[in-house]
């Protein structure tokens, strides 16, 4: 197979590739460092990567892919039990880390290889096929121990090329982001994406609106973020005209990993003239849909299927929904070259994840417009509420609540109700804790915007919502 990164040998050696703070590598330097490391790990079955937001992580993953070795990114914040499970399950032969990084005891039995970003060696031609594994990325484990999704080189290449088509992504683009590098969004899209195009990435290390403004003012053309980041941007804009001006220079602002509330969409657009576009993907599928750069950025939607991706909605009994009206809720199923190969060591889970004819069951619920646009309404397990004979998605109620000036954050769940089956519960972080909006006021607010049967029957007030590293609300923690 040809290299996933043709620019490593085809781009000018002095072309900027990676920058993390005040540390950077050109394509020539990246190729030399990756070549030296690839020579040390060639022939390994899998290698773990201590995935800190640093140059070393990017060099380690590129070297592994050039050597035809699967990389297992490790979250540095993982607890001892989770880390132990991932290591015993994936059985890496070594761990790649930055010199000086302190590794936890769970990694003590592995051979450690320090990544030298100034190393020099010839870049090997990858001796790997399209179907060989590129990455083993572990899921969040919300319903049990994390599962290792085996992602092929074919899936990585297809997703990045499909996004290049949708976003008109080229080697002239410079991406800024501050995402962690142990998952698909930050690593595959945020690091491997620019490198496949021959462009540059500037990683902030830690997200901050000042860093975003600085990089956009200094020539960055794209920004990737999660809703928590864009929410901080929206909050900062009224007091920071320089931030609004900088965001207005971007060619593309992309949000993912969770739904961006419509209210934040509107605040950013009003201040900057820019529309944030959303896309939809999962660890197991990489990217499925996106608003296109040349399409309508419709707030609250994740756009249309990417080239090569088939998408359908199905009823609870698995029957496909054949008429899309923007109202009928169904589970998303996808099929295409973007899909993962298997769950490592879990043939049972792999088989259960697919239908007999090869569609992957995402567990995400959505509605679809007649023109193909998809709007996610939540996870089947936590966000689909069956109340009074209706199927209701939590996401649209959360968006409605966030339009109330007295609500800073909101989450919606269902809980058992003898009469309704389930009643809608709103978890609200008030803008003013001393004077929160009443439950009746919030119920009327939602009923006026959506429908009476979608109003919350109970409101619970919190100081903050529990979130994971990606900014996703952990609803199981709310319900417990």
Briefly characterize the structure.
With 480 residues, the protein is an alpha/beta fold.
Give the arrangement of secondary structure elements.
Layout: H1 7-10, E1 16-20, E2 23-26, H2 27-41, E3 46-50, H3 55-67, E4 70-74, H4 80-90, E5 94-97, E6 111-114, E7 133-138, E8 148-152, H5 153-167, E9 174-177, H6 184-197, E10 200-203, H7 209-217, E11 222-225, H8 227-236, H9 241-247, E12 252-255, H10 262-272, E13 277-282, E14 286-290, E15 304-305, E16 310-314, E17 330-335, E18 342-343, H11 347-353, E19 360-368, E20 374-379, E21 384-387, E22 390-393, H12 394-402, E23 407-417, E24 421-430, H13 439-449, E25 458-461, H14 475-479
Parallel strand pairs: 1-10, 3-4, 3-5, 5-6, 9-10, 9-11, 11-12, 12-13, 24-25
Antiparallel strand pairs: 1-2, 7-8, 8-18, 13-14, 14-15, 16-17, 17-19, 19-20, 21-22, 23-24
Family: Belongs to the ATP-dependent AMP-binding enzyme family.
Domain AMP-dependent synthetase/ligase: 12-344
Domain AMP-binding enzyme C-terminal: 396-472
């Amino acid at each position: 197979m040809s290299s996933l990164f043709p620019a490593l040998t085809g781009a000018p050696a002095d072309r900027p590739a990676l920058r993390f703070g005040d540390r950077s590598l050109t394509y020539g330097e990246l190729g030399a460092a990756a070549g030296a490391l690839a020579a040390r790990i060639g022939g390994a079955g899998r290698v773990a990567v201590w995935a800190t937001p640093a140059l070393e992580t990017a060099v380690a993953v590129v070297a592994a892919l050039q050597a035809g070795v699967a990389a297992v990114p490790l979250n540095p914040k993982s607890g001892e039990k989770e880390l132990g499970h991932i290591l015993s399950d994936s059985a890496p032969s070594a761990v790649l880390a930055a010199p000086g990084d302190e590794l936890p005891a769970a990694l003590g039995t592995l051979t450690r290889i320090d990544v030298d970003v100034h190393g020099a060696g010839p870049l090997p031609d990858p001796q790997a096929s399209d179907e060989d594994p590129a990455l083993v990325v572990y899921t969040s484990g919300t319903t049990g121990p994390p599962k290792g999704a085996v992602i092929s080189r074919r899936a990585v290449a297809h997703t990045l090329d499909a996004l290049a088509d949708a976003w008109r992504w080229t080697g002239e683009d410079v991406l800024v982001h501050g995402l962690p590098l142990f998952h698909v969004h930050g690593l595959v899209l945020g690091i491997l994406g620019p490198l496949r195009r021959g462009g540059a990435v500037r990683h902030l290390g830690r997200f901050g609106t000042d860093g975003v403004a600085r990089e956009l003012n200094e020539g960055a053309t794209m920004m990737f973020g999660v809703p928590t980041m864009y929410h901080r941007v929206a909050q900062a804009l009224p007091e920071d005209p320089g931030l609004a001006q900088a965001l207005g220079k971007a060619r593309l602002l992309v949000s993912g990993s969770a739904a961006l509330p419509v209210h934040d969409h509107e605040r950013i657009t009003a201040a900057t003239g820019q529309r944030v576009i959303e896309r939809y993907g999962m660890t197991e599928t990489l990217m499925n849909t996106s608003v296109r750069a040349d399409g309508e950025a419709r707030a609250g939607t994740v756009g249309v299927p990417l080239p090569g991706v088939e998408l359908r909605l199905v009823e609870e009994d698995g029957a496909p929904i054949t008429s899309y009206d923007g109202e009928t809720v169904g589970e998303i199923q996808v099929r295409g070259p973007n899909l993962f190969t298997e769950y490592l060591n879990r043939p049972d889970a792999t088989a259960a994840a697919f239908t007999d004819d090869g569609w992957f069951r995402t567990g995400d619920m959505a509605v679809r417009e007649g023109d193909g646009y998809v709007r996610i309404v939540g996870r089947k397990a936590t966000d689909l509420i069956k109340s009074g004979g209706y199927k209701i998605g939590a996401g649209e109620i959360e968006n409605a609540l966030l339009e109330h000036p007295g609500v800073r954050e909101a989450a919606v769940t269902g809980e058992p109700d003898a009469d309704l089956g389930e009643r809608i519960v709103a978890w609200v972080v008030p803008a003013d804790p001393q004077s929160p909006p009443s439950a009746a006021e919030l119920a009327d607010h939602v009923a006026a915007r959506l429908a009476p049967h979608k109003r919350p029957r109970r409101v619970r007030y919190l100081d903050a919502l529990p979130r994971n590293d990606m900014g996703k609300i952990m609803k199981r923690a709310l319900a417990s």
